[in-house]
Amino acid sequence: xxxxxxxxxxxxYLSTSALDSDVVxxxxxxxxxxxxxxxxxxxxxxxxxxxxxxxxxxxxxxxxQLIPPYPGAEHQTSFLKHEFFFEKLVRL
Length: 92
Known about the structure:
This protein has one helix at 50-55, and strands spanning 5-14, 23-30, 59-63, 83-91. By secondary structure, it is mainly beta. A four-stranded antiparallel β-sheet has the order 2-1-4-3. A hairpin with an 8-residue loop joins β1 (5-14) and β2. The longest helix is centred in the middle third of the chain and has 6 residues, at 50-55. It is elongated, with a radius of gyration of 15 Å.
């Protein structure tokens, strides 16, 4: 067996565009195959903020584009806007 890096991905939805704001939603994906996380598998987020994920070694590689609401749509329900993608490389 050869040594290889595998990617783990963490998607955090924050309450605002600031990385130190509260996590309101999340998803995890494990390219190592050692865990099989699913949506709704925990009641508590893996981190309280995006900064907490950075401090635990996750690397930020994508943040959502900031798009202002269309006039008249400020109070409509829609997708979670403040989406941040993090990764960790795990050596197998």
